[in-house]
C-alpha cells in the first residue's frame, strides 16, 4: 500500500488495523497481511488500490532486491508475541533484536506462533518470499515438536492425518469452515508418569497452517497440548540457536529457502 502511494507505512498499518482494508472482499485487521499483486484485489474504504507488481525480470533486479532485504531467524521463547507492535505493551518478537536493527529495518514476522508456543520464526522485509512461505499453494513444510497430555493412540493419529474442518470467526462477524490436516504426525516417545501425568511427544509437520491449528486439531481428538515448539521452517533448523537468540541468514540459507518454495529441496 505504501509503495502504491496510499500513505506512509505507519499510516497504512493504522488503516489495516482500523478495519478499513479488504483483501478479496474480506476485511483484514492483523499484520502482517501478505498479498499477491497479480491475483489479489485490495481495497481501501471500498476503492480498489492499484498495487505495484513485483520486479521479476532480469538478474540485475534480482540482485538489487537481494541486497535490500534482510532475513533474520529467531528462536522465539515462551511469552513473546508474534507481532511488531502491541497496545498492551507485551514483549514482541522485535524486542529480541538489537535497537539498531529494529530502527533501520522494516521487518515483519512470517507466519505466527502464539504466545505459549516456542521455536523458529523468520523475520524479513522481503514481501515476495514471505508471501511464498505462507501461501498454501507453495506448501513449504514446517515441523513441530508437541508434548500433549495422555498417551496418544494410533486411532487419534489417523484422525489427525485424515483431517477435519475447523471453524474460524472473521473480524466482520462471519465464520468460515476450512479443512485442516497434518502432512505427518508420529509418536516420538510416550511418558508414563503417575506423579506428573502421562504424556506423549509428537512430531508434527504442516504445509498449510490455520490459527492455532495444531492445538485445535489435537483438542478435537481428545489431546491437550502442554508444549509446542516449531523446530524447522523448510530447510532451516535451530542448530545452536537458543531461545531468545537470533541470527542473520546468509546467501546459502536464502537459496535453500527459495529452493523449498520451488519444491526443489
UniProtKB/TrEMBL annotation:
Query: Which family is this sequence assigned to?
Result: Belongs to the pseudouridine synthase RsuA family.
Pfam family example for this protein? PseudoU_synth_2
**Cited PROSITE patterns:** PSI_RSU, S4
**Location of the RNA-binding S4 domain:** 2-29
What reaction does this enzyme carry out catalytically? uridine(2604) in 23S rRNA = pseudouridine(2604) in 23S rRNA; uridine(35) in tRNA(Tyr) = pseudouridine(35) in tRNA(Tyr)
Tell me the PANTHER family matching this sequence: PSEUDOURIDINE SYNTHASE FAMILY PROTEIN-RELATED, RNA-BINDING S4 DOMAIN-CONTAINING PROTEIN
EC numbers on record? 5.4.99.-
Assigned keywords, A-Z: Isomerase, RNA-binding
Q: What is this protein called?
A: Pseudouridine synthase
Amino acid at each position: 500500500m505504501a509503495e502504491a502511494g496510499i500513505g506512509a507505512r505507519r499510516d497504512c498499518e493504522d488503516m489495516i488495523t482500523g478495519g478499513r482494508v479488504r483483501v478479496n472482499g474480506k476485511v483484514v485487521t492483523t499484520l502482517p497481511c501478505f498479498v499477491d499483486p497479480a491475483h489479489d484485489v485490495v481495497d481501501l474504504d471500498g476503492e480498489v488500490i492499484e498495487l505495484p507488481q513485483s520486479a521479476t525480470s532480469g538478474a540485475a533486479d534480482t540482485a538489487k532486491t537481494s541486497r535490500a532485504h534482510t532475513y533474520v531467524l529467531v528462536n522465539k521463547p515462551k511469552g513473546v508475541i508474534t507481532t511488531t507492535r502491541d497496545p498492551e505493551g507485551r514483549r514482541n518478537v522485535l524486542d529480541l533484536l538489537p535497537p539498531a536493527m529494529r530502527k533501520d529495518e522494516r521487518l515483519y514476522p512470517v507466519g505466527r506462533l502464539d504466545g505459549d508456543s516456542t521455536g523458529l520464526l523468520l523475520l524479513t522485509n522481503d514481501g515476495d518470499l514471505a508471501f511464498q512461505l505462507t501461501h498454501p499453494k507453495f506448501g513449504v513444510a514446517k515441523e513441530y515438536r508437541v508434548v500433549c497430555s495422555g498417551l496418544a493412540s494410533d486411532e487419534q493419529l489417523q484422525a489427525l492425518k485424515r483431517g477435519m474442518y475447523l471453524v474460524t470467526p472473521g473480524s466482520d462477524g462471519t465464520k468460515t469452515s476450512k479443512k485442516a490436516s497434518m502432512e505427518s504426525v508420529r509418536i516420538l516417545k510416550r511418558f508414563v508418569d503417575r506423579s506428573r501425568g502421562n504424556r506423549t511427544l509428537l512430531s508434527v509437520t504442516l504445509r498449510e497452517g490455520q490459527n492455532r491449528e495444531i492445538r485445535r486439531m489435537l483438542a478435537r481428538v481428545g489431546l491437550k497440548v502442554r508444549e509446542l515448539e516449531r523446530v524447522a521452517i523448510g530447510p532451516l533448523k535451530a542448530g545452536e540457536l537458543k531461545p531468545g537468540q537470533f541470527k542473520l541468514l546468509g546467501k546459502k540459507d536464502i537459496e535453500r529457502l527459495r529452493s523449498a518454495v520451488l519444491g526443489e529441496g
